[in-house]
Design goal:
Shape: globular
Number of helices: 1
Length: 146
């Protein structure tokens, strides 16, 4: 079975049984796909802890990167998504998140065959965040004067 959800930003409470009771009957052959902004940020104890909790779930967690992931790390001992080893999985290229075997980054532009369903991984956009919300933007995601 395949379930799909949106951004987590490393706050994985929505994957708890309180909010997602169906997971009790799932196995590692069932999938939850997080569509962007999963929360792969840094090598901090907190981020590793949160991702470790996701890895303990009964299901396999897949995610497509968003504009709030760490792609290239400046942190010693931590690899960004673009620095992780690439492997083949269900017909497409992925990164297995270190320390897990069931938290998997689906690389952009890859097509996967999961439970007989073809899935295209499309990544996030350039960040448009500012402190008070979404800014008006123009070509190349540049701020447009109001």
């Amino acid at each position: 079975m395949i379930f799909v959800t949106g951004d987590c930003h490393a706050d994985f409470r929505k994957l708890n049984t309180k909010y997602f009771p169906d997971q009790v009957a799932l196995t590692k052959n069932d999938y939850v796909i997080v569509c962007g902004d999963f929360g792969y940020w840094d090598g901090s104890k907190q981020n590793k802890y949160e991702i470790g909790l996701v890895a303990q779930r009964n299901f396999t967690t897949l995610f497509v990167d968003g504009n709030h992931e760490n792609y290239v790390s400046t942190e010693e001992g931590f690899l960004g998504l673009n620095e992780l080893p690439v492997t083949e999985w269900h017909g497409g290229k992925v990164n297995i998140i270190p320390g897990t075997d069931n938290v998997i980054h689906l690389k952009r532009g890859e097509v996967f065959d999961i439970d007989g369903v073809k899935i295209l991984a499309m990544g996030g956009a350039a960040s448009h965040d500012i402190s008070d919300g979404i800014i008006p933007y123009g070509p190349n995601w540049r701020k447009v004067a109001k």
